[in-house]
Amino acid sequence: MTNLPSLLLVDDDSLISESLAFVLKEDFTVYIADSRDEAKRLLYKLPTLPELALIDLGLPPDPEKPDEGFALVSELLTFNPSIKILILSGQDTQENVRHALTLGAVDFIPKLCDMELLKTRLKHQLMILEAEQQPTKTKKEKCGMIGQSPVMKTLLTQIQQFANLPFSVLVQGKSGTGKELVAQCLHTQSEHNKAPCLTVNCAAFTTELLEAQLFGHAKGAFTGANTARSGFFEDAGEGSLILDEIGDMPLQLQSKLLRVLENGEYYRLGETRVRQSKARIIASTNRNLHEEVKSGQFRGDLYHRLSVLTIKVPPLSERDNDNFLLLNYFQAFYAKMGTLFQLDEEAKQSWQKYHFPGNIRELRNIVIRIGAKYSNQLINKTQLEEELEIQLTQKPSTDNYEQSILNQLNQDNFSLDEVLLERERRYINAAMESSKGNLSQAARILGINRTTLYSKMQRLSKT
Question: Is the whole-model pTM more than 0.85?
Answer without folding.
Answer: no
